[in-house]
Design brief:
alpha/beta; Rossmann fold; Arc Repressor Mutant, subunit A; 3 domains; six-stranded mixed sheet; about 15% strand
Length: about 375
């Protein structure tokens, strides 16, 4: 963020609610004026008279949740163009990517750097992660408030988080006539973590058209609640599955939607392996975002059933990664990454991530505990 502020006049920070955007930007830029556009008085002034707003609030400035007043973007553009040599003058934050993306494309293209902030990654939590079991981590999730205040009950916190999201954000983003059906859709997605989602099949279960479900899925993505992992375009086989998988950005929310209220319930649940995979894939995405880079993550599955859970692409190289929730090592964990590496010229560092000890095997496979895995 500091580096981008030396190169661009505007920094735009996307991310889910409660992920720490406000805390981060106020700590990185402590001398900047701060305006929260969720405050009605500030929002009304900005919407009614942008010139008067900026007459009272001068850059350098942080404009928090700017999607509430999209009209400000054009005024920011004018102010930036008047002082193009001044970098890092405007810090914008927002939770709804489509609205901000529209603002950027229309008014701030070429003037802003875009950064994504997700909840803390596993490496960022440090010692706290080493003390917690995998089941504890999946249950608690990674929202900053739950780690700042360990006495909070994750189930209650995620219940309130989800209900607030549905009542405040969903109604603004899309005309959802029946929020009960929307909530059912999100709950069904939680039961399909790491799977290729068939919206046509889900349409029959929910009683809503697949077109509408596609719109709802796009809303969940734009709000940073879920993300799609695209299929790989590797030429390992011509019979590749071409549909994406769906994961939750926050495992704690998925666990809540699955009705699991304690770590011991997570440990016994048939979907534990799926949630563990979700945790690792989401962490890989966070690590990439924290470097200011696109995820460049995918998976591979062929019609014959061969699969690689995660493929990380960087510099033209492909790193195949197998994800297992087991604490016990089994040599057959390496089968997928080893085959991929043998059949793909650009493959490097075949990797297995699980819940056991780190190892470097003689066949070139890198074995890492999920706590020590680094995607750099």
């Amino acid at each position: 963020m500091r580096e981008m502020a030396r190169q661009y006049p505007v920094i735009t920070v996307f991310g889910p609610r409660q992920s720490g955007k406000t805390t981060l930007v106020r700590n990185v830029f402590p001398k900047y004026e701060y305006v929260n556009l969720e405050d009605r008085e500030s929002r009304d002034l900005a919407a009614a008279d942008a010139k008067s707003f900026f007459a009272n609030h001068h850059p350098p400035i942080i404009l928090d949740e700017i999607q509430h007043v999209p009209e400000l973007a054009s005024t920011v553009q004018i102010l930036v163009d008047e002082r193009r040599h001044e970098m890092g003058q405007f810090i914008l934050t927002g939770s709804h990517q489509p609205l901000l993306a529209e603002m950027v494309s229309q008014s701030l293209a070429g003037r802003t750097a875009i950064l994504d902030l997700y909840p803390p990654s596993i490496p960022e939590l440090g010692e706290a992660v080493r003390k917690a079991s995998a089941d504890d981590l999946m249950h608690r999730g990674f929202m900053p408030e739950l780690w700042r205040n360990p006495s909070l009950d994750p189930t209650t916190w995620y219940r309130n988080y989800f209900r607030t999201y549905v009542e405040r954000d969903v109604r603004k983003l899309v005309n959802v006539r029946n929020t009960i059906l929307f909530e059912k859709f999100v709950t069904l997605l939680a039961g399909r973590i790491g799977q290729i989602v068939n919206l046509h099949a889900m349409s029959g279960e929910i009683g809503v058209s697949s077109t509408t479900l596609g719109e709802w899925l796009a809303i969940l993505e734009s709000s940073f609640l879920v993300f799609r992992l695209p299929p790989s375009s590797s030429n390992i086989s011509k019979r590749l599955v071409k549909s994406p998988k769906v994961y939750f950005a926050e495992t704690g929310l998925a666990v809540y939607l699955l009705g699991l209220e304690t770590p011991s319930q997570v440990a016994r649940d048939p979907l534990r392996g799926n949630v563990f995979e979700n945790m690792v894939v989401a962490d890989a995405m966070k690590q990439r975002a924290n470097l200011g880079r696109d995820p460049r993550l995918s998976f591979l599955r062929t019609g014959s059933g061969f699969e690689v859970d995660l493929i990380a692409s960087a510099g033209g190289e492909l790193r195949p990664i197998e994800i297992k929730s087991s604490m016990t090592w089994h040599s057959d964990f390496t089968a997928g990454p080893v085959r991929f590496a043998a059949e793909t010229p650009r493959a490097v560092s075949p990797t297995v991530i699980y819940d056991g000890a780190d190892m470097d095997l003689s066949n070139g496979v890198c074995v890492r505990n999920f706590r020590s895995f680094r995607l750099t």
